[in-house]
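Friendly challenge for the regulars: who can give me the structure tokens for this chain first? No prize, just bragging rights.
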Amino acid sequence: MNKDLEANSTLSHYRIVSRLGAGGMGEVYLAHDTKLDRKVAIKFLNPEFSKDEDKLNRFVREAKAASALNHPNILTVYDIGEVDGKNYIATELIDGTTLRQHLAQKEPLPLNTILKIGVQMAEALSAAHQAGIIHRDIKPENIMIRRDGYAKVLDFGLAKLAEPGAVPTGSSGSEDATRIQINTSPGVVMGTVSYMSPEQARGNPTDERTDIWSLGVVLYEMLARRVPFTGDTTSHTIVSILEKEPLALENAPAELQRIVRKALTKDLDMRYQSARDLLIDLKNLRRDLD
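First reply, four minutes later:
Bragging rights claimed.
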């Protein structure tokens, strides 16, 4: 643990309890909110990034994007601040593990669990998209599963806000509404390669359909226990995403195969046009299988 963040040390009204982990942007700690008497998770931006305007802006954007959304399947942001030069985000503490950790277990996920997670992710993305927020980094590491089975979307650090007054609906097929980007320039590729949409991998403008693709990759991986597009290098993986079709899913209901196939359609106009459309199909399938 960072010597400045020893157990029982206090920053603002948060008392540090223990270190939970670390990511590319910083470290996460379990802390006690002394004002409201509750446990929280606090993410601290790495000190060297605090001097990097782009990294700091991404950190702030994550907090703003998530805090703009009030949804049971999206991580709740409580607070953002700076103490003694340390930038932090305080969020709800989730009692659970990431979907990546679930996928690493020997036993495959049951079909009803896969559908339950898929429905909840589609619910979260539908809410985000209706608020004009595109996540752009949906992957198992950014999905937490609580002990009670509730799924939560994390990490809006790569989120893009649609142009005010032009929230995309997904029905027109136009990308114009999302051309104003607050954190990237055309041609810049951001996100985790295996889960990138073709348009994202090309560095082209993206809209909510890029999240639908990424959720399709996650659904495929939960069913097949492998990602649909792979390569020996990042470049090979991108070529696979752009040019190849995934292997057919085995031992999955025909309707679920169709849903995943439609989410992973390279042609934007043939892909699901909204997370809500995907959500409706997943819910109907789940009802039919019950």
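The chain has a mean pLDDT of 84. The longest helix spans residues 111-130. Your move, everyone else.
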